[in-house]
Amino acid sequence: MKQSNQECAQEGNNTNTKISFYANDTYVGPNPSSVLIAGVDSAFFEFGSTFAFDIPLFLEFEPNTTTNAIGKAKGIYTVYTRDDLSCSITMNLFLDEYQDSVLTFLGVLNITSPLREVPVVGGSGVFRGATGYFLSQVVFNDPITSNNIVKYDIDVNLYQNLLLH
What we know:
Layout: E1 5-11, E2 14-25, E3 34-38, E4 50-58, E5 71-79, E6 86-95, E7 102-110, E8 116-124, E9 131-141, E10 148-159
Keywords: Apoplast, Secreted
Subunit structure: Homodimer.
GO cellular component, one term: apoplast
């Protein structure tokens, strides 16, 4: 990957790739990247709250910017427990360098956990048959707006016999 922070290691028929970036997740403002699509506005992160997101991704920690994006994370998450802030998340990662390729994540994300892990469930294009996970952590949070910047570290295994050439 030319644009993002990446390390590659090749072993047998697979390649392990590590990708790091920052996501500017905004809930308020003129162009929010995450919006509540089901639930009660006054109970923002309560049981049943469902959000759709289309979040720009950056190589560097860049609060308050919309330029120099390297791609987007798009998907939905739903708060599905009453006893903590755990969400079911489906996230598709679109990186500009890998046009027509998508990396897909599906799992449980606890909003209150300082470090979150969600597995790769596959992908398309160069990510076909991918496995792995992401680790994410909030590196900036505005307690008034809930806008935040999240750092993602992705570890993904790509299988050469499935790669498109």
